[in-house]
Amino acid sequence: MARLYIKIDENNNCVDHPHFESNVRALYPEHDFTSGPPSGWKEFVRVSPPVLGAYQKFDETKGSDIAIAFLHNGLEYKLVGDVFKDVWTVLDMTDAEKLEKQNAVKNDWAENGFSSWTFNEDTCTYEAPVAKPTDDKVYRWDETTTSWVEVV
After folding, report:
1. Cα–Cα dist 108/150, whole Å
2. SS3 sequence, 1-33?
3. 122-140 pLDDT, tens per residue?
4. Residues with Cβ < 8 Å from 8, sequence gap 6 or more?
C-alpha cells in the first residue's frame, strides 16, 4: 500500500486530506524521506471503515469537515502515537431508530418480497424457509414450491 502523509499546522492539527508520498516528494524534491516526512507533515495510516451491525450507524456529528470524501460522516483524522489515522465513530441505534428501520424493511418486503420468508429481528433481514445451497451454482427462489431452483 502506498505511504500517505498529511499536512499539519503549528498545533499538530491536520490540514486538508492525506497525500500520497509521491505527491509530497514532488513538493519537496530535496528532502531525505528516509529520515521521515518534511517539517509540517506527519505520516498517515488509512483504516478501513468497520462493517456496521444491523442496528449500528456512523456518528453523523463526527467528521463533517472531511465528509466530502465519503457518503457519510463518522470519520475523523486523529493523531495516534506519532501518526495520524482514520478514526471511525460508530453508534448503536436507539430503540426508536431500530423500530423505524425494521418497519422500513418490512414495508419494502411487503411490496417486493416473498410471503414464505420470515423476518429475522437480529439481522433486520428476511430469510428463506430453506437455506440457499452453498455450492458454486446460481439459484433463484421459487415461491410456488418454496425452494431454490438452479438457474441454467
Report:
1. 26
2. CCCEEEEECCCCCEEEEEEEHHHHHHHCCCCCH
3. 999 999 999 999 999 999 9
4. 14, 15, 40, 41, 42, 84
pLDDT digits (tens, 9 = 90+) for 90-124: 999 999 999 999 999 999 999 999 999 999 999 99
Q: Rounded to whole angstroms, how far apart are CA atoms 13 and 6?
A: 10
Nearest 10 degrees: CA dihedral of 34, 40, 43, 47?
-170
On whether the CB atoms of residues 130 and 147 are closer than 8 A, the answer is yes
Cβ proximity of 139 and 149 under 8 Å? yes
**59-81 exposure pattern, b = at least 16 Cβ within 10 A, e = fewer:** eeebbeebeeeeeebbbbbeeee
The CA radius of gyration of the chain, in Å to the nearest whole number, is 24
pTM of the complete model: 0.78
Q: Rounded CA gap, 149 and 147, in Å? A: 6
Sorted by where each begins, the domain ranges of the chain are 4-92, 95-150
